[in-house]
Structure formats: C-alpha cells, structure tokens
Structure prediction request, 342 residues.
Amino acid sequence: HQKLVEETPSPVVDEALRTRMAEAAIALARETGYVNAGTVECVVDEDGSFYFLEMNTRLQVEHTVTEMVTGLDIVALQIRIALGERIGSLDAFAPRGHAIQCRLNAEDPARNFLPGPGRVTRYREPSGPFVRVDSGVREGKVVPGDYDSLFAKLVVSAEDRERARRRMLRALGEFVVEGIPTTLPLHRWIVETPEFRGAAHTTTWLERAIRGAGLPPQLDLAPSEPPARGPLPADIVIEVEGRRVPVRIFDERRAVPPRPPGAHAGHRAEHVHGEIRAEMQGTILKVLVEKGQEIEAGDVICILEAMKMENHVASPRGGIVTELPIKAGQVVQTGQVLAVID
Prediction:
C-alpha cells in the first residue's frame, strides 16, 4: 500500500493525542541516540489509541505539508545538522493553518494502479498563492519505468481544512498531464467524496469505495450542442478538455457490456489470437511457465517489474504455451509478445 493524499494537522488527532505521539517520537529518538531529521510513523484506531509502525531516518515524501504550515525548510535543516551545526529551538515555528498534499503517480487507477511509463506530451502546473508543486517532469520528458511512479507532488495550504480542500480541488482542476496515465482523476474524485470532506476515511476506505462505486471516469464528457435525432450508428464530434474528438455511437445492443458489480481491473495481459503482450515497459524478473506447458486461465506467465512494482502477468485463457520468447532479466517494451497460448 502507498499513500495518495497527506494532510496536516490530522482531523482525527486532537491536541492531547498529538502531544502523546510527539513525546513518544522524541523518546524513541533519544533512546536510540538518533540525531537528524527523522519520521516516526504510527497508525491510530477508532478509539484514539496509536501504534508504532516504523521510524525512517530521513525525510519522507510528505515533509512538504509540515513545511507549508510551519515555514521551515526541513531539507536545509537536515543538511545543517549533518554538517554539525546547531539549529536551536524550533518552538517559534508553531504550525498555523492546514495543508494537503496529493501524490501524482504515473499509474492507471482504472487498471488496479498499473504503472504507465511513457512520454509526457503536455504538462501544465497550477499556480497561485499557497500552491506548491514539486515535480521531476516537464513537457516532452519521458517518465521511465526504472524508478518509482511518483512524478509530482501538489501541495496547498489555507487557514482551515475546508478552505485547503477547496484550494486543492481548484489546483487539481488546473493541473494538466497528457501522454501517460496518472492518478489526477482519482485525486479529484477523492477530494470531493463525502468521506474525505467529513474526514471519515480509513486505511481501507479507498479500496472498498473503488470496488463498491467504481472508479471515477477519466474524462468528463458533455455535449457542446443539443444532440441530433437520427439513425444509429452515427458519427459525431464531441469536445474533450478543449479538443474535438470524432466518435461513433452504436445502439445499446452493440455497446460494450458494463463491468459486473464489484469487479475490478487486474493485471491480465491484453491478447490477440492467443498472444500475451506486455502492457508496459519493464524487466522480466521471473518466467513461471515453460514452452509446451499446459496452463489454465489465470495462471501467471511471468513477473514483470516496472516503476519498482512487481506485476504478475496472468493468461486470460487456458491452453498450451507454444511460444515463450522471454527470459529473466530481459527488458521488454509495451506491446511486446511475452507468450503465445494455443
């Protein structure tokens, strides 16, 4: 599991609990003799009890929200401490307001967060007061499959949580990334949900919400003109995010059937006439079948690593493996044949 949205202060942590957690974190650092920036992670249950998860002896991705509400430059402080400097008391930097961060990943939420390396064809960051973007991409740059899928962090702050939430929603609406799948549509949906607005989300909420309600659409479509009456199929032009796109409309009996309730996308490889192809660029970690082997639908053909994630490539059909042109350690490209099943 990986974080998607971070905020400070936590809406479910009161001052008494925050004080107890801070005291425990300081005691841990003192007991171990650790000196420098560190992050202590805990999980809080419904009755307000907290439990230690881990301590990372470094900054974490979410250090930005702390910087937004305190005005501190934690990166600079970490370097100064490493140089042996004394930084003095930080009591004057009391947190003020509320900050929210969205991690933007090159992943497709509609396909079970499948990594999607590729070239960024269009890129525009939001701007404005109390809006911060830390990113490692630009228009025309390739997001490689060799590293983590995180390519940008969008951070906002405001006087209170609701104002920060509305500011984040505006900034997400202004953020434009094309050419690769991203979690932007999912973030827009999350920030608008009643659960997030009411701070009722938990560590298991997102997975249940996605399965129960389905993912938000990647595109919001609306006719720019009243629909014309006429026979189907019909060729029309619609406007999608400012661009005109030709579309052919069929009647219901020829439409693609909807996903069954509760179903969700997995990592079954796309196939044509028995060919199993790579859905992304990556490295073959392990091949789990042999040429001539009889397999069943759902059997894993190989493990493909992309963006530090292991993806089990499963066969959508049963049969005999007649071709297997891959081996462990091989780099494959999107669309490359991994196996043929007859």
About this structure: The chain has two domains: 5-213, 271-341. Confidence is low (pLDDT under 50) at residues 216-227, 251-268. The first strand starts at residue 5 and ends at 8.
